Amino acid sequence: MARYRGSTKNRFKEKGLNFKRSKLNLPQPALQTFYISHAQSKEFSGVFFFIKGLPRIIHQLPPTFMEKNNAAVAAANAASIFSAAIALLLASILIPGVEATLGVNYGTVADNLPPPSQVAHFLLESTIINRVRLFDANPEIIQAFAHTGIALSITIPNDQIPLLTNRSFARQWVEINITPHVPAVNIVRVLVGNEVISTANKLLIATLVPAMQTLHTVLVGESLDRRIEVSTPNSLGILSSSAPPSSGKFRQGYDTHVIKPLLSFLRATNSPFMINPYPFFGCSENTLDYALFRPNPGVFDETTQQTYTNMLDAQLDAVFSAMKLLDFPDVDIVIAETGWPSEGDPGQVGVDAESAAEFNSKLIQHVMSGLGTPLMPNRTFETYIFALFNEDLKPGPTSERNFGLFEPDMKPVYDVGIMRQRVVASAPDDYRTPFFLMIMGVFIAAF
After folding, report:
1. H-only helix segments in 269-389
2. Positive or negative CA dihedral for 198, 199, 200, 203?
3. Dist. CA 70–CA 73, nearest whole Å
4. What is the pLDDT of residues 295-351, one digit of tens each?
5. What is the distance, to the nearest Å, from the Cα of residue 102 to the centroid of all Cα atoms in its chain?
6. Is residue 108 within 8 Å of 135, Cβ to Cβ?
7. Contact 374, 390 (CB under 8 A)
8. Residue 104: helix, strand or coil by DSSP?
9. Beta-carbon count within 10 A of 366 CB
10. Residue 229 has what DSSP assignment?
11. What does the DSSP assignment read for 37-103?
12. Which of 109, 111, 108, 162 lies closest to 119 in space, CA to CA?
């Protein structure tokens, strides 16, 4: 259950909310998120406009009634103040919105990380992050997230993919890695491998979709298929063309034999196509502003007559174009990984804490704004930032060890606006309905 410290009115003033009778004045980004992303939601519109209209209903009562019923006057004043607060609160609880779609990749290639239980508590109490992606199925880490409500995605290593095509092995894997933890742990997704298609390993690629199908079948048998999705993250290396975005195509051979069956499976199971777009790896000194969401001339796509002002949108739309070419534009896209290092080797352009903070803060603002991309407008993107911690044992260049948002002592490497000031994490899904009923009960009791 979410708890709040300090004055509710003051908290919302800090966020730019103004309180007036019968009116809810939200800042423009919030309006975009609410009305663009959720205007079609009956659940949202009913709750939002009922609460928003409470002050008007009360104040339109006959004067004699209001004079004789001090409780009604008090309720009217309270409703005027709380209409904005409760509407925003319910939006964050009932609807996947800004905070509900922000995740982080929790890597553990380090020898100085805090215990998983401390990490889970820190994320819940101190940040707005409530989705976590693991690169394995470490039981200690999984169990650390019990009763937090944080949505967890766990991963089956690439080398186990061929084994997973065997139903007995898949059932055993589920019994060991999932069954002991649910429902206490909010496991929402199992990822079969990572960037498998880009490995060029013929065995892994050939068994990827059959393994996902087998795992899903086992989840159905355990009545877990509605709780847990099955997907697999992909790098942009699966594209043979990405510039301009409208020319996006999957690599020949993989497109019809691997990716099309994969997308068909994802559509059938209502699971997302997960990609790892990294503007950092796609930029140069000349395109740094374009990659960092800074003002720039933009890139014009003559086919769609759209101008791209940032590289991430171009990468996402290239993937969307490739999916559309295979007749799968309806499959949702999730950003499984993206980030920017805060330290690198000498001579690397744009590799510093300031650039990392700039990219990640603007990334969060952009993907949660409800604006979408030129080819996918009016939507948000479930996004996982890479990574939670700097990992000192990762091989490769210095930058590979410095993608973390936090140091091992959980101090921020830089500020991207994900630390909670007075607000603790929003209520888990299981508590949404009781919390809503409680709030409505308060209003009813006031009369």
Report:
1. 279-282, 288-291, 311-325, 353-368
2. negative
3. 5
4. 999 999 999 999 999 999 999 999 999 999 999 999 999 999 999 999 999 989 899
5. 3
6. yes
7. no
8. strand
9. 18
10. E
11. IHTT-HHHHHHHHHHHHHHHHHHTS-HHHHHH-HHHHHHHHHHHHHHHHHHHHHHHHHS--TGGGEE
12. 108
Q: Residue 38: what residue type?
A: H
Indicate the average pLDDT of the chain: 81
Show the tokens assigned to 446: 């006031």
Cα distance between residue 294 and residue 305, in whole Å: 21
**Total-model pTM:** 0.75
**CA separation for the pair 5, 316 (Å, rounded):** 39
The mean pLDDT of 193-199, rounded to a whole number, is 97
Residue pointed to by tokens 């709750």: 47
Taking the C-alpha atoms of residue 311 and residue 340, their distance in angstroms, rounded to an integer, is: 13
Residue position matching structure tokens 């990827």: 208
Q: Of 276, 381, 290, 391, nearest to 342 (Cα)?
A: 391
The predicted pLDDT at position 347 comes to 86
Q: Write down the pLDDT at residue 128.
A: 95
d(CA 52, CA 22): 7
The two structure tokens encoding residue 156: 């089956």
- Distance between CA 222 and CA 339 in Å, rounded? 36
Cα 435 from Cα 2, distance rounded (Å): 9
**At a CB cut-off of 8 Å and minimum separation 6, what does 18 contact?**
25
Q: How far is CA 341 from CA 109, 153, 387, in A?
A: 16, 23, 9
The CA-to-CA distance between both ends of the chain, in Å, stands at 25
Largest Cα–Cα separation, the chain: 81
DSSP 332: -
Looking at the annotation, which residues are catalytic?
195, 337
Q: Give pLDDT, residue 422.
A: 53
Q: The tokens 């994802």 sit on which residue?
A: 266
What letter represents residue 288's amino acid? L
State the pLDDT at residue 291: 98
How far apart are the C-alpha atoms of 52 and 8, rounded to whole Å?
A: 17
pLDDT at 421: 79
